[in-house]
Each structure stands twice: as structure tokens, then as C-alpha cells.
Automatic annotation (TrEMBL):
This is STE20-related kinase adapter protein alpha. Residues 26-53 have a biased composition (Polar residues). Residues 26-60 are annotated as: Disordered. InterPro entries: Kinase-like_dom_sf, STRAD_A/B-like. It comes from Cricetulus griseus (Chinese hamster). SUPFAM superfamilies: Protein kinase-like (PK-like) (SSF56112). One of its GO terms (molecular function) is protein serine/threonine kinase activator activity.
Length: 145
């Protein structure tokens, strides 16, 4: 970036998959090499012209639980920083656990329990071995993940 600044050119991103195309085409007034960058110009280009909120990840909003969790992790004083067990009990993780437990039954609804698989009605060892043989013969190439 130093060479771009000295030469007066705009730096080029190598990985553009996370930045929208509108942000990649920088006008000369938004160039990093231009020292007279106007803050109002930079902030006005953060939103699309149609008024919708931008979709790329740099403009996402996060929950207050997440912000509090990050603030605790970024304490400068190591003695003031919480330990791992305290962080695992933080409300941010509790909210995630709660949502996962609510969503799990719906995610598992299309899954058939292995006990309902054809040929597994008997619980004797020969039935289990035949079940294993049947499962080994399954073709997963046709599945879409």
C-alpha cells in the first residue's frame, strides 16, 4: 500500500468476493492516495441509492449480547478479562443454545431414525450385521449436500 500511496494509484484488492462491485470502483476523490478525502463523501457512499441497507457483511448489525461479549474479550488488562468458563456462560452463548434447541427439531424432521430403516426391525446381532451391510452398500454420489 505504501507504493500505491507514493505513486498516487489506487490499491487493488486481490480477494473481491466480500466487497460489492459498487465499492470496488473507487472514484479518484475516494482514493487513499488523495489526502483531501472528504468524510461526508465516504459516508454517503455506504448506502445504495435506493435507500436499502447494504447487504455485504461490513454493514451488519450485531446483537447487544455479542457487543458485550466482544467488549469483555478485548479488555486490555488481562486480570480484568474473564476466563474461558465465564465466557462460555455468557448470555451470548446462552441465546445461541436456546435458538439451536428450538431449531433442532425442525431441522431433524425430514430425518428418518435409523431404527425405521428397512431390515432393522429385529434387534438380534444378525439383523444389525445385515443393517451394516445395507448401509455399506449405499451410494452417496447421488445425494445433494
Amino acid at each position: 500500500m505504501l507504493l500505491e500511496k507514493l505513486n498516487g494509484t489506487v490499491p487493488c484488492l486481490l480477494d473481491t468476493s466480500t466487497i460489492p462491485a459498487e465499492e470496488l470502483t473507487m472514484s479518484p476523490s475516494r482514493s487513499i492516495a488523495n489526502p483531501s478525502l472528504n468524510d461526508s463523501l465516504a459516508t454517503s457512499n455506504l448506502r445504495p441509492s435506493n435507500g436499502d441497507s447494504p447487504s455485504h457483511p461490513y454493514h451488519r448489525t450485531f446483537s447487544p449480547h455479542f457487543h458485550h461479549f466482544v467488549e469483555q474479550c478485548l479488555q486490555r488488562n488481562p486480570d480484568a478479562r474473564p476466563n474461558a468458563s465465564t465466557l462460555l456462560n455468557h448470555s451470548f452463548f446462552k441465546q445461541i443454545k436456546r435458538r439451536a434447541s428450538e431449531a433442532l427439531p425442525e431441522l431433524l424432521r425430514p430425518v428418518t431414525p435409523i431404527t425405521n430403516f428397512e431390515g432393522s426391525q429385529s434387534q438380534d446381532p444378525s439383523g444389525i450385521f445385515s443393517l451394516v451391510t445395507d448401509l455399506e452398500g449405499l451410494e452417496v454420489d447421488d445425494w445433494e449436500f
